[in-house]
Amino acid sequence: MSNPLYRFFVIAGLWYLTVTMVLIAWASQASANQDSITTFDGKWKGLLVCTGKGGEFSSARGLQIKDGILRYERGTENEDRFEVWHGVVDYDQEVFILGRYFWKGEKEIWLRGRIEKTGLRAEGHRGPKSCNLHMKRLTSSS
C-alpha cells in the first residue's frame, strides 16, 4: 500500500508501541533497582583496620544503611575526636563512603568497595593511613 496516510499511521503506531515498551521496561527496571538497594538496609557491624605512619590500628564500627544511604557517626560533629561517614550503595552493590574526623586537626575519609554474600568490604584512606573495612549485617530493617 502506497497510501501516505496509511504509512503515517503504521509508522506512528510502531513508534508509539516502541516508546511504550521502552517506558515499561525502564519502569520495571527502576522498581527492581530500588528493591535491590533496600536489600541492604539494616545495621552493620565490623572492623576498620588502618596502617601507615605511626603504625597500625583497628577499631570496631557500626553503621546504618537505609534506602541505599549509609551513615556512621561517633562523637559530636566539630568537636575533638568526632568522626562521621556518609555513603551510598548503588544498583551494582558498590559502596562509596566519604567522611571526616577530627584528631589533631580535621582529616578526610574515603572508602570504596562492594557488598557481596560475605558482607561489605571496602578500602581507601582515613587521613594519611590506608584502610580496609570489613562488615556484616546484623539486622535488616523490615
Main traits of this protein?
142 residues; single chain; alpha+beta; eight-stranded antiparallel β-barrel; Lipocalin; 25% helix; 1 helix
Question: Would you mind describing this structure in some detail?
Answer:
The protein has 142 residues and is an alpha+beta fold. It has two domains: 1-38; 39-140, Lipocalin, CATH 2.40.128. It contains one helix and eight strands; from the N terminus they run αββββββββ. Strands 1-2-3-4-5-6-7-8 form an eight-stranded antiparallel beta barrel. β5 (94-102) and β6 (106-116) form a beta hairpin.
Brief rundown of the structure:
This protein is of the alpha+beta class and 142 residues long. It has one helix spanning 4-38; strands at 42-51, 57-66, 69-74, 83-89, 94-102, 106-116, 119-126, 129-140. The chain contains one helix and eight strands, in the order αββββββββ.
Following the backbone from N to C, one meets helices and strands in this order, namely HEEEEEEEE
Helix/strand-derived category reads alpha+beta
- The CATH class assignment of the largest domain is Mainly Beta
The total of helices stands at: 1
- What oligomerization state is this entry in? single chain
- Rg is 23 Å
Strand share of the residues? over 45%
